[in-house]
């Protein structure tokens, strides 16, 4: 029997991108004379895609979140984020886990609400792009997570067989539940809800644990 595919969320799961997103967000606010926001405030806006992020930034700055600035800031922030990549860092032991899973014969995929261009840019920046056989991003389909179609598409691209989804947030938990996919919850990411209140099959706090978790996964055939 072939090894299951392992599909990862990106922001808050494999990488801590909040410092980088915080930096470009404050640059966008600053050039428009809007008040800057602290890191923890911006961290709470991450995970539902750029349009949601920009709505939150504008609302927190006292602007109309769906007003004329929205499209302008989205376009400018995306362009900036493709090139200003400092502050994106892999979580501890995540790289080791990716290599271990790949060497064990698992196909690896990404399913992220981050748009494709900045996703590919950060994967190249962190030198992990070759590890992934499938990348489904926030603008790859007509819908975003928590709609399950992104995860379904990722599973199809990886062979349409067994797959485990690995994520960190309420959005990821809802996506996995709606898709009917096994879910491993990384507890050190961007979630706001208590672990026990989130849908998951297993939770882990250190990526050194993940290859062992996957190897012992019990499948109901």
List the topology elements.
Elements: E1 5-8, E2 15-16, H1 18-31, H2 39-43, H3 50-60, H4 69-81, E3 89-90, H5 94-103, E4 108-111, H6 116-125, E5 134-136, H7 149-157, E6 163-167, H8 170-179, E7 183-186, E8 202-204, H9 210-215
Parallel strand pairs: 1-4, 1-6, 4-5, 6-7, 7-8
Antiparallel strand pairs: 2-3
Q: What attributes does this structure have?
A:
221 residues; alpha/beta; Rossmann fold; DNA polymerase, domain 1; 2 domains; six-stranded parallel sheet; two-stranded antiparallel sheet; 40% helix
Description:
Helix content is about 40%, strand content about 10%. The chain has about 220 residues and is α/β, with parallel strands linked by helices. It folds into 2 domains: about 5-15 and about 90-215, 3-Layer(aba) Sandwich (Rossmann fold), CATH 3.40.50; about 20-80, Orthogonal Bundle (DNA polymerase, domain 1). The strands form 2 sheets. A 6-stranded parallel beta sheet has the order 5-4-1-6-7-8. A two-stranded antiparallel ribbon has the order 2-3. Strand 4, helix 6 (about 115-125) and strand 5 (about 135) form a beta-alpha-beta unit. Helix 1 packs across helix 4. The longest helix has 14 residues, at about 20-30. The model has no long low-confidence stretch (mean pLDDT about 95).
Strand line-up in the sheet with most strands: 5-4-1-6-7-8
CA-based shape: elongated
Number of strands: 8
CATH C-level category of the largest domain:
Alpha Beta
Strand content: 5-15%
Contiguous uncertain segments of 5+ residues: none
Q: How many independent structural domains?
A: 2
Question: Taking all residues together, what is the mean pLDDT?
Answer: 94
Order of helices and strands: EEHHHHEHEHEHEHEEH
Largest sheet: 6 strands, parallel
Structural class: alpha/beta
- What CATH calls the topology of the largest domain is Rossmann fold
């Amino acid at each position: 029997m072939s090894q299951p595919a392992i599909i990862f969320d990106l922001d808050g799961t494999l990488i801590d991108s909040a410092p980088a997103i915080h930096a470009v967000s404050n640059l966008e606010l600053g050039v428009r004379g809007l008040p800057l926001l602290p890191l923890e405030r911006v961290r709470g806006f991450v995970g539902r895609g750029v349009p949601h992020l920009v709505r939150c930034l504008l609302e927190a700055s006292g602007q109309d979140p769906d007003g004329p600035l929205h499209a302008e800031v989205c376009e400018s922030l995306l362009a900036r984020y493709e090139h200003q990549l400092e502050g994106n860092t892999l979580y501890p032991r995540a790289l080791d886990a990716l290599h271990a899973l790949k060497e064990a014969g698992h196909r690896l995929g990404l399913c992220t609400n981050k748009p494709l261009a900045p996703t590919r840019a950060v994967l190249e920046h962190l030198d992990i792009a070759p590890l992934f056989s499938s990348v489904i991003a926030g603008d790859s389909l007509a819908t975003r997570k928590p709609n399950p179609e992104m995860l379904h598409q990722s599973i199809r691209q990886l062979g349409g067989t067994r797959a485990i989804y690995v994520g960190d947030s309420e959005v990821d938990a809802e996506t996995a539940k709606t898709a009917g996919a096994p879910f491993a919850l990384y507890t050190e990411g961007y979630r706001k809800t208590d672990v026990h209140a989130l849908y998951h099959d297993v939770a882990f706090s250190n990526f050194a644990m993940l290859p062992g978790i996957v190897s012992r996964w019990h499948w109901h055939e």
